[in-house]
């Protein structure tokens, strides 16, 4: 089947009967819901760009499995070039949406599953790799958006999954049947889940022998019985209901997260990718997290490009663009942003083939990438706010600006340089507000902290991969220490 156009993607999501709740009510028409629609538009961009001749080379690739042209978001990486192009594609999508475009989670889950299922099968003679390949080819051929669900609620962090007071705090198998399994649990803050056709579920931590029922991975479509979503709030989300797009800052695009409940969901045998092989839970987690930490060296950089551009425009509209400290702050923002990109490219360039043949990123460098992402966007936002000035959080509403009595005062007193309209000045400030404090801040700032694993998760990996023993040997050799 051919690639879907953006419009075909939207209509394909409309056809799926999902169970979604928001503000205590069932959302009957999520596709046209004003709070949810911007996040759908962000995913749509991954389809629109693939149709655009200017970007088709980056956005599409030939599937090694079918020989057909597919969207890169469904690709199994075949080389370090593929890994680098993935990061470039994510930067592009970030630039075009200034938000989280959500489709990477499935791509990263695809590549982690591809290599892990191969290794599990080799040890246990299971059929997970074939199951996964069949599912992956189905997604490639139908150009589907797949979500990856990893984060369990985790309850008491000091206890293993099986030792939790409430056994459902990690998703687990509750029934084994000849035709499949029944699972129960939840996955928290699921990016893009309500904009996906399918979801791949994976364990969230390494597991011990007693966690057998928790070491489970599978894929199900979003209209599966027992699966439902409760949409997470974002600051300023209800501004989208006010009919004042200027106040939203980025009215066309956004991201979305949901608490996703699996209330006794049936999974048929051919959709199971891991079922009780506890020692492979950690491998799946580590590989998925590694790929997603690489991803942040692309997507956050693209969003950062927009924010840096917005700060530069705000400086011009304020008449401050020639001030040396403003110029220097913009340089610093670019320096930080490109450093993140360097990390994304570096961990890709140092990639290597797995036993299954697809390419894995350099794990140490990918973790360093994400560790920097937990910091630099905060500094970039701080500098953007510094340049923008306080008006980005104190400006009156669009309704005041359009009001017959008040509008002329807002226009007069909030004007910057002579040849720029007050409206344009307010628009750029609202965009900065949106990216640093509003709905897009979820995807740029807080997601930079906690998405793809909180900072401590990367530090554990850096400790493991950093080879401190070798560094000590080096020092002793140079100092001529003999022990
Ligand atoms: Fe993709 Fe970035 Fe969103 Fe993750 S946070 S899904 S990498 S855009
Ligand atoms: Fe994310």
Q: How do the strands and helices of this protein lay out in sequence?
A:
Layout: H1 6-14, E1 20-22, E2 25-26, H2 37-51, H3 56-59, E3 60-62, E4 69-71, H4 80-97, H5 104-124, H6 128-142, E5 146-149, E6 172-177, E7 180-191, E8 198-201, E9 216-221, E10 227-231, H7 245-248, E11 257-268, E12 272-275, H8 281-318, H9 324-349, E13 352-353, E14 359-360, H10 363-373, H11 376-388, H12 391-394, H13 398-402, H14 407-413, H15 422-436, H16 439-450, H17 455-465, H18 468-478
Parallel strand pairs: 1-10, 5-8
Antiparallel strand pairs: 1-2, 3-4, 6-7, 7-11, 8-9, 9-12, 10-11, 13-14
Helix pairs in contact: 1-2, 4-8, 4-9, 5-6, 5-8, 8-9, 8-10, 8-11, 8-15, 9-10, 9-11, 10-17, 11-15
The structure holds iron/sulfur cluster and fe (iii) ion.
């Amino acid at each position: 089947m051919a690639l879907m156009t953006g419009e075909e993607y939207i209509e394909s999501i409309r056809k799926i009967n999902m169970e979604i709740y928001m503000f205590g009510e069932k959302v009957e028409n999520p596709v046209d819901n004003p709070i949810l629609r911007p996040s759908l538009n962000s995913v749509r961009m991954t389809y629109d760009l693939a149709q655009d001749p200017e970007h088709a080379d980056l956005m599409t690739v030939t599937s090694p499995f079918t020989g057909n042209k597919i969207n890169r978001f469904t690709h199994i990486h075949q080389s370090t070039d593929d890994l680098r192009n993935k990061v470039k594609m994510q930067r592009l999508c970030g630039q075009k949406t200034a938000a989280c475009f959500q489709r990477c989670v499935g791509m990263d889950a695809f590549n982690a599953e591809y290599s892990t299922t191969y290794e599990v099968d080799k040890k246990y003679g299971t059929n997970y790799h074939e199951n996964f390949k069949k599912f992956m080819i189905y997604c490639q051929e139908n150009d589907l958006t797949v979500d990856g669900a990893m984060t369990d609620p985790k309850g008491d962090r000091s206890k293993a999954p099986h030792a939790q007071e409430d056994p459902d705090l990690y998703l687990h198998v509750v029934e084994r049947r000849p035709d499949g399994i029944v699972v129960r649990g939840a996955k928290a803050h699921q990016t893009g889940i309500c904009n996906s056709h399918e979801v791949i579920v994976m364990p969230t931590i390494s597991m011990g022998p007693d966690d057998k029922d928790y070491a489970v991975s599978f894929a199900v479509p979003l209209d599966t019985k027992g699966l439902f979503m409760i949409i997470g709030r974002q600051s300023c989300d209800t501004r989208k209901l006010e009919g004042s797009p200027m106040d939203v800052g980025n009215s066309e695009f956004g991201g979305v997260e949901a608490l996703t409940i699996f209330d006794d969901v049936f999974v048929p045998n051919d959709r199971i990718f891991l079922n009780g092989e506890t020692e492979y839970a950690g491998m799946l987690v580590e590989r998925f997290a590694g790929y997603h930490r690489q991803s942040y060296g692309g997507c956050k950089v693209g969003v950062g490009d927009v924010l840096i551009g917005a700060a530069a425009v705000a400086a011009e509209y304020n008449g401050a663009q020639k001030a040396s400290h403003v110029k220097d702050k913009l340089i610093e923002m670019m320096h930080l942003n490109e450093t993140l990109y360097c990390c994304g490219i570096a961990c890709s360039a140092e990639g290597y083939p797995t036993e299954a043949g697809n390419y894995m990123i350099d794990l140490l460098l990918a973790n360093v990438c994400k560790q920097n992402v937990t910091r630099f966007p905060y500094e970039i936002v701080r500098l953007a706010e510094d340049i923008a000035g306080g008006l980005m959080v104190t400006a009156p509403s669009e309704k005041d600006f359009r009001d017959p009595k008040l509008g002329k005062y807002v226009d007069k007193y909030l004007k910057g340089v002579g040849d720029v309209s007050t409206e344009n000045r307010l628009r750029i400030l609202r965009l900065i507000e949106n990216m640093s404090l509003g709905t897009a801040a979820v995807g740029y700032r807080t997601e930079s902290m906690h998405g793809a694993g909180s900072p401590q998760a990367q530090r554990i990996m850096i400790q493991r991969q950093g080879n401190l023993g070798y560094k000590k040997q080096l020092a002793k050799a140079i100092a001529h220490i003999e022990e």
